[in-house]
Amino acid sequence: MAKNKPEGMTSHRVGGGYAWYVLAVLTLVSAVSLIDRQIITILAGDIKRDLGLSDAEIGLVYGTVFAVFYALFGIPLGRLADTWRRTRLMALGLGGWSVMTVASGLASGLVPFAGARAGVAIGEASAGPAAFSLLSDWFPKHRRATVLAIYSCGVSIGVGASLGLGGVIVEAWSRWFPDGNAPLGLAGWQGAFVIVGAPGLLLALLVATLREPPRGLADGVLQPSPPRPLKLAWDELMAVVPPLSLLRLLMLRAPRREVLLNLIVALVIVAGVALANAGALALQPPDKVKVLFQVGGAAVTGHLLQWSTVGLGIYVLYSWIQSLKLSDRPTYTLLWATPSMVGLTCASALFMTINYGLMGWSAFYAVTHYDAPIAEVGLKFGTISAIFGLIGTYLGGWLADFLRRWTVRGRLLVSLTAMVLPWPLVHLVYSAPDLDTFLLLFPILSVITTAWLPGVLSTSQELVLPRMRGAQGATYNLAATMVGLGAGPYLVGLVSDVTGDLKTGVLSIYLLSPLIWLSMAVALAGLPKAEATLLDRAREAGEII
User: Fold this and answer.
1) How many angstroms from the chain centroid is the CA of residue 225?
2) Could you report the per-residue pLDDT of 18-33, keeping only the tens digit for each?
3) Which listed residue, of 94, 147, 420, 474, carries a Cα 20 to 30 Å from 51's Cα?
4) What is the crossing angle of helices 127-138 and 86-106, to 10°?
5) How far is Cα 116 from Cα 61, in angstroms, rounded to an integer?
6) Are the C-beta atoms of residues 90 and 127 closer than 8 Å to each other?
7) Which homologous superfamily is 340-545 in?
8) Cβ distance 527 to 413 under 8 Å?
9) SS3 543
């Protein structure tokens, strides 16, 4: 095994002290990622005022722009995590998105602000897949759900910190520079972006010092990195960016039937986007429809951009699957020809749609429905998100590993339970008669809606080979971002506009629950066979093990 270790690496046992140090650093990276991503939500009012943006334009930058670039670059960067030095990739990504966070605070209009947020998305797309892969190599199989739960706690910490830090910095900025004599003439919201972005550059230097474990170290299936990793990543980018995706199919000498199918799927998606856009425009009251800009006399609305984003995500996914089937049959087999894995991917996408819809609107609901001060709600929601999200994530991971000792389905049973319980609970929370009762009940919902993640993540990582874990992480990120972030908040807002009731909008998103449960049932049914036949199926697809 020693000869497979990267040059300069000293021996460290799986699950030892150094592994826990790596986990601590990567959890901090996860928290910083969410701070830089989510701080825009608490600063939205000031950004709108100073840049002259509408609600739709803020939503466009926060949701649509981020989702598109995160998804497009997530797949090639995820594959790069499978072929290159993962610690180096994370350090470069973290440094890049930190610079772009600072640039967000220097933006003077919609276009440069959107460009900076796109840069944040591209950088952050490198973090999750590389982290999942590293942690799966540093820790033994029986601890992975707990370890990934601890890593995922960074999400809750980051979301909570973004709400708290954003408000505190803006308020402090006005005290520090009451006469508007701030450095470079920056407003409070701009200072907030600069202050939260800059420390990421130092953290990137720390990440760069982390040691790189051999792929498969904890599983005893060592898989060396292939040559020319950057070329492979470029090939993956071609596979997902239209119209380069068609060129990639031709380069792979795809059968004519596959090229024709790609074109047919593209046309069906365009037609679907047009119908969905027309339906949304017909449902929404005319005074609620906002035109973002004109293209050749045609009005581009938020509806069109949102449905185009979802359509692009579907096309990206389909094109990538086609390319993967031709260029890397073993990875295709384990990711897309395994019913349990497909079930987990669908369940993740749908449940993240619910979660993004819930978290994207709950604070606003508390402010408007209970006529509560924004500062009070922001601070309390930030605390709830950080503390109870952390508790739920860790508890879900611990329970998942505990039940895994008794049954191969143990981890997913915990995830399924966490996907079922919110259905009745959210109705109780949103029927609270006052703010205090709402904030008392919401932590229970927060714990449950975060407990699902570790079981799904750890199971997904174990259904692929070590060299494929970055690709699996990118698949999860694509599903969670393009579908969850791209559709969740939008659907809640659309139903709210149609009905005139935000509560109805939030509750309506839970109508997706039966589809989630069905997807999890598929995953649970095939899991024992999928795990038992993993190596055999990979070999049959051409993998050399």
Assistant:
1) 26
2) 999 999 999 999 999 9
3) 94
4) 150
5) 10
6) yes
7) MFS general substrate transporter like domains (1.20.1250.20)
8) no
9) coil
